[in-house]
Amino acid sequence: MKCFKSMSFLAFMSIFLLQTEVLLCLVQGHVHYHEFILKDTNFTKLCSTKSALTVNESFPGPIIQAQKGDTVNVNVYNEGRYGVTLHWHGIKQPRNPWFDGPEYVTQCPVQPGTNFTYQILLSSEEGTLFWHAHSDWSRATVHGAFVILPANGTSYPFPKPDGEQVILFASWYKEDVMTLLDETLKSGGLTTSSDSYTINGEPGDFYLCSNETTYRMLVDYGKTYLLRIVNSVQNVDMFFAIADHNLTVVGADGAYVKPIVTSYIMITPGQTMDVLVTAKQSLGHYYMLASPYYDGEADDFDKSMASAIFQYNGNYTPPSSPIYPTYIPGYYDIDSARKFVTQFRSLASAEHPVDVPLNVTTRMFITISIGMLHCPNNSCAGPEGNRIASGLNNISFANPAVDVLQAYYRNISGYYNASFPDEPPNLFNFTSEDLTADNYTITSRATRVKMLDYNATVEITFQGTNIMDSGENHPVHLHGFRFYVIGSGLGNFDNVTDPLTYNLVDPPEVNTFPVPKDGWATIRFIANNPGVWFMHCHFDRHMSWGMDTVFIVKNGGTDETSIRPPPDYLPACSKNSLFGADQSMLQIEE
């Protein structure tokens, strides 16, 4: 069994380490090494040039490929202008939170001029996931696909495709993203929308100065292709369709699902999907479109559409223009989004079984809301001179000066409070159209976490709210786990009748899921991964405003059920993530 090795980092490995690597390969699967260099790179898009932070000078960043059960080591050198962390989205990292990545939760940023090696432990994940920066808004240009192939001796639960292609959606801003974030956080107002969306780094034909670089996927007639679709857009869900071609969804978030045949998909930021498409139309060019979906009232989003071309090989006269889809849902098509989302079911086969927890020991009810924080003299740019904030159970999460994991592991007091509540402070009509009084809108800032016993069976119902007429779909992501989405619905959750609708047979097992606008969703998981794990909305602006919390899963009774020891080196904690020597508004004073 030969381990894959990559890049110059291996030149520094000793003979002893190489021999150790071979032993690890034989016992634990392949061990991979990658070198990521963070640095500013110039790009010209939308008729203008700017410098953006990238990995290895590419946008999107490099694809990591491994097999189920492998270990991946990524040495990150920061040659950029500010501190950055990286997160391996959807990878559970069993007992290994030290390398999960969210800043001030499991580590402090890797500062300019330093490096840090991440150890990524693959376990049950199989399919398409991705990696991205998890500090400030640097995810905008620091991200890439993470492809996990079946282990040796196993195969896909569908006929092996003839080819495959990563399709990655992202946001593009003409201005520097960190400058925009700085201005937004200082003013307390709304965030700036992107100037375009991109497919594999290119905006496409419907933007100025872009049609010469539109991404083209070349295909052969009669062949079937696996599209590994990643949504890394900052703040909006996306519809996707290919003109005149049906799509078959076979996987989501690194797990397989019962096939869904559809003419479009809806995918939230943080979600990944494996989709089959067969090239069986007349030879020609067909548009692939990525179009935003938004169901909020503020209407503050980028109303544009990215395009790529599904282009057949062969001897034919190229058309003057690609064929446009006969149907792709509109920006505000709630019914089409909901119809797609509710179709997901786990494969639940002998090879890919489900194990839905039945005996709940910890039950939580968490409200999701946009609110406000008071500003002195009404000096902020939000409603009534207040600062826009967001929260879970009316708590807006604040990043501490020392990351939660170090504070917990080393028993350092003063950086977090283990008092995140199991329910909101008040119960009311969460979806009412008249929720503007201060007792609804004003949130509190704190670093409050939820403690979980090892092996606790956890059920969480998330309730969307319409406070300040701000109800919208929220993609919630939980680090360290895959969980079952056993139910969802519209309106206020009814704890008597709604549990009767739960799917306990084949619910989807995911890491990111949409809580519908003015609706609810219920998840279950077993807290069998000791460590410190972040949970947040995957709209970056909501995360920046505080729609986050942290779960601390206690150790079990043995070494094998306890957090692994920390690495010899961790990035030092300081107060200069983004704003020099000053603290971010997302941090609290020591």
Concise synopsis of the structure shown:
The protein has helices at residues 15-28, 177-187, 334-341, 404-409, 438-441, 540-545; strands at 31-45, 48-55, 64-67, 71-78, 86-89, 115-121, 127-133, 143-149, 163-172, 196-199, 216-219, 224-231, 237-242, 247-252, 255-262, 265-267, 272-278, 285-293, 306-312, 362-373, 387-392, 395-397, 444-446, 449-452, 456-464, 474-478, 483-490, 509-510, 512-515, 519-527, 531-537, 548-553.
Architecture blueprint of SSEs:
Blueprint (H helix, E strand, L loop, with lengths): L14 H14 L2 E15 L2 E8 L8 E4 L3 E8 L7 E4 L25 E7 L5 E7 L9 E7 L13 E10 L4 H11 L8 E4 L16 E4 L4 E8 L5 E6 L4 E6 L2 E8 L2 E3 L4 E7 L6 E9 L12 E7 L21 H8 L20 E12 L13 E6 L2 E3 L6 H6 L28 H4 L2 E3 L2 E4 L3 E9 L9 E5 L4 E8 L18 E2 L1 E4 L3 E9 L3 E7 L2 H6 L2 E6 L37
Parallel strand pairs: 1-4, 3-8, 9-12, 11-19, 20-25, 22-23, 24-32
Antiparallel strand pairs: 1-2, 4-6, 5-7, 7-8, 9-10, 12-17, 13-16, 13-18, 14-15, 14-17, 18-19, 20-21, 25-30, 26-29, 26-31, 27-28, 27-30, 31-32
